[in-house]
Amino acid sequence: MKNYPLAVQIWLIFASITLGVTLLLALLFPWALRSFFTKEIYAQIEASQDVFLAYATSSVDGWEDKGLLKRELERQNVRAVTHVIFRENGKVIGGKALPESLVKMLNEDIGEQLADVQQYVRPVEDESIYYVIRRETLAGKTIYLVSYVWNSYLNGLVSTLLWRLILIMAAVLLISWLPCLWLARYLTRPLVEMEQRVKRIADRDWSEPFVLERADEIGRLAGSIERMRERLVSQNEKQQSFLQQVSHELKTPVMVIRSYAQSILDGIFPKGDIPGSVRVIDEEAERLEERIRGLLYITKLEYLEQQSSRKLFRLDELVVEVWDRLKWKRTDVDWSCSAEAVTISGDPEQWKVAVENLLDNQMRYAQKKITLALGQKNGNAELRIGNDGPPIPEEKTEHLFNRFSKGEKGEFGLGLAIVKQIVQLHHARIQVENGAGEVFFVISIPLMKR
């Protein structure tokens, strides 16, 4: 069934449920109708007896002598209820002639009956008979009024009504299948539309927005598809831009290396001698290696966004270790470090790379001093790293952390982009602040709640 279209599956489910309910009702109706009509027959018999006895004003002997009893019984023997009167001695004094076996059975019931009115049902040959025996006293004499209905009458009522109900249910069942089919198509129409749109997105045709004005689960699914489309569009734009930037960044050192190598092969030394020319090739190779290493780390971070491994560690110890290792690269500036004891949850190796890249950026622009401060503020760990270099214009702070963003000295790099991605992986925030003669990179990291 799962291989059929969803509309057909929904219709089949509706049809199966309605058909099952119809069959169940068809099985239960005979029992329910028979039980109902049995009670109604007994009620009808007793009501007929009440009507008959309301006319019993003469003595039983008088009715028998004048033929009044016979006429009254014939008048009351309507609607399948038949009356027979028994004397106390078992003699039948009025009513239709009954088989001797039935008369004997009725006399036995009369003899055993203790209540004034009692209901019976007995098998008689191939049928059943429903009857009520009522004891009454008329003109000082006790009589027994036996009123009965044959089972054929009950079966006729049940079968007639049952067939009518079955026909009605069958008609309703057949008629309801058309609305069910329409409902199935109505429910699956937006799913079909979403399927077509997802196919287009899979074929990279994602320029057209997908809007489905619904507030139910289907509408929320459509909203998720639209958000996916937007992210794919954004990711594609970033990827195209990134590829252009990468090709430009890698092309320059490769061109320099090839041109210098070709010149050396031709016996020409661009720097005057072989060592100077080879040194340029080595510098460009190192620059190329740095770019490739940055690209590989960016790719690694994108993978770790889904496979992040975290643990508790002392951020202050990590910061001080990186600080002590890098401060010897620029001994001409004043290094100032203040770190409080702070424990965070995250990946220590990633944070080490982030701090290294930030300090490397400070060393590039610092004139006389580089400062680092780690503490706690508003329930977060706050890391401030700054230098006394030129301020960063406000319009450039938004693009500062983009990949291959151009710096003040005309350099392109991935360092700050890597920092931004690490910060985002740890649900932290980074911003740039221009102070009095200083530029600070401020990272706010959520602390573990105890």
From TrEMBL:
Signal peptide positions (record): none
Source species of the chain: Brevibacillus borstelensis AK1
Superkingdom of the organism of origin: Bacteria
Domain Histidine kinase: 245-449
GO MF terms, alphabetically ordered: ATP binding; phosphorelay sensor kinase activity
Chief site of localization: membrane
Protein name: histidine kinase
Top class in the EC scheme: transferase
Spans traversing the lipid bilayer: 6-29, 161-184
Annotated ranges, domain HAMP: 185-237
GO cellular component, one term: plasma membrane
Topology in the lipid bilayer: Multi-pass membrane protein
Lipid metabolism listed as a keyword: no
EC annotation from Swiss-Prot or TrEMBL: 2.7.13.3
Catalysed conversion reaction: ATP + protein L-histidine = ADP + protein N-phospho-L-histidine
